[in-house]
Amino acid sequence: MRDEPVLLLHGFATSAARTWGDNGWIDLLRDAGREVIAPDLLGHGEAAKPHDPAAYDGLEAEVAALLPDRPVDAVGFSMGARVILTLAAEDPGRFARIVVAGVGANLFREEDASELIAAAVEGRSTSESPVVQYFAGLAAQPGVDRAALAAFIRSRRPRLDAGVLAKVTCPVLVVLGDRDFAGPADPLVDALPNATFQPLRGVDHFATPKDFGFIDAALAFLDAQP
To answer: Under a CB-based contact definition with an 8 Å cutoff, are residues 171 and 218 in contact?
Structure first.
C-alpha cells in the first residue's frame, strides 16, 4: 500500500469542503491511511478573498508551500487540475501520481473568454454561451464573493501548452465526462508523457466531483482504496 500524502485542489467558485468533504473524498483517503492536504484556493472557501487580480499571481507558489519535502499524490478538478499541472511542470519531482478531471482541450484553446466570464461572475453578462452561463451559476451560490472570483478570473495564470506539459513526468490519470465542455481529452492526454484516460459516460462538468466513476478510478490509480 502506498503512503504518499494526497493533495486535493478544488475547482472555481467552490471549496475543499464542498468538493472533497461533502462528496466523501477526504474520508475515503483517510480510511486508506493517507494524509490529506485540501486547502481552499485564494478567493474561495475560507481563504482570503482579495479583489485585486494581481493578488492571485502567487497562487501556485502558495499551494507549493503547503507541500511536504517528499513527493505527494494529487487530485485536481478543473481550475485545481490546472494548478497541479502547472506545479508538476515546474517541479516534477514533487509528485508521484496525479489525477486531473474536468480539463482537456480547454487548456489549449486560444480564444480568451476571461472577460466574458468575469462579467458573468459579477452578474452583468448577457452572453448565452453555456460555458459563460455555467460560471455565472457558480457565482450565484450563497456565500460567494463575486468580486474576488472576478479578480481570480482576470489574474494571469501560467500558460500551459504541449511544451510545458511534456515536463510532467509522473503517471497522470485524465478523467473527463463525455458531456463536459472542457473536452475532448485527447490534446491533454497526448501532451502528457505518461497519461492514461478514463472517460465518464453521461457526465458533465458540474457532476464530475461526485461521480462514482471518477472516485473509483482515482482511488484505484492512487492505490488508495479503503
So the answer is: no
For residue 78, with 0-12 CB atoms within 10 Å meaning exposed, 13-18 middle and 19 or more buried, which class applies? buried
Q: For the chain, what are the domain ranges?
A: 6-110+158-221
| Candidates 3.40.50.1820, 2.30.110.10, 1.20.140.10, 3.40.50.2300; CATH matching 6-110+158-221 | 3.40.50.1820
For the segment 168-197, what is each residue's pLDDT rounded down to a tens digit? 999 999 999 999 999 999 999 999 999 999
Q: What is the pLDDT of residues 39-63, one digit of tens each?
A: 999 999 999 999 999 999 999 999 9
DSSP state, residue 21: I
* 38 Rama class: left (phi>0) / alpha (psi -120 to 50) / beta: beta
Contact 182, 102 (CB under 8 A): yes
C-alpha of 219 from chain center:
16
Distance (Å, whole) CA 211 – CA 190: 24
- The torsion angles phi and psi of 61, rounded to 5 degrees, stand at -65, -35
3-class DSSP state of 197 = strand
